[in-house]
Amino acid sequence: MTTTIPRTKMWCSPSDLLTAQVELFRRDLYVSASELQAALSSNEVEGRKAIYSEAMIQSIRAEMKKISEYIPIPYIVFLANAEGCVLDLICSSEKLESEMQQAGLCPGVNLGKSVSGLNAVSLSMEMNCMGIVRGEEHTDPAFENWNCVCAPLFVDGSIQGYVDISFGVEQQIEFAIPFVQQLAENVTDKWMNQNIDLQKYRLDMSFGEYKLTAREKDVASLWLSEKSALHISSELGISEGSVRNV
Asked: How far apart are CA 177 and CA 49, in angstroms?
């Protein structure tokens, strides 16, 4: 069951869940981190998910490197894929990173509701919007000292992942709502659009839709790179007339 909140509200909290949904947020599956990591590796090595996952990882790292010095309080960033599996974890200090490792929170862990119960990622997955979960609202005790805000990452018409930023429970979480929203937009609209591998993948998908031949793809790629017909003919060893025909 998935609920969509009113358009006038940009985020949700556990109080927005229906009674039937609350019952589903329980930890009734226990899968080890190693098993989840193996599943993540085997399922996403090839194809679309792997490309988008790597692009999201590179993008969140680039964005956090740019803005981390402007965040004056301790924080943890979780990047999860569309299924809730953690792809990357960024902590503001080595001490926090060590604490997360001791708590078993690392890449490969699934934050979906069936595995980890109620948290900002699973809430965002359920409600299709930003999710906010505070301290003891979490099912997993590992999060009870954190206030968490999660935003879905919309890329190419669908949700490809989720970015969660967690702060200590003593922090007022409302201030983070626009911050996390802007973070998600920067990741998807700025950094991912600059990702070379993702650009190539999108181009290949577009070429496939038009059923271009291998030669047509070569010409199209160079043409889209703003190379002249003369340059393309020299690069590919074909006549300039052939280039123009393509």
From this structure: 27
Pairing of strands 158-168, 86-91: unpaired
Q: Which helix (H) or strand (E) holds 243?
A: helix 240-245
Backbone angles phi, psi at 130, to 5 degrees: -65, 140
> What is this structure's pTM?
0.79
CA-based angle 106:107:113, to the nearest 5?
Answer: 85
Average of per-residue pLDDT across 53-68: 95
DSSP secondary structure string, 142-194? GGTTEEEEEEEEEETTEEEEEEEEEEETTS-GGGHHHHHHHHHHIIIIIIGGG
**Model confidence at 223: pLDDT above 90:** no
The per-residue pLDDT for 46 is 52
pLDDT, average across residues 129-134: 95
Mapped onto helix, strand or coil, the DSSP state of residue 87 is strand
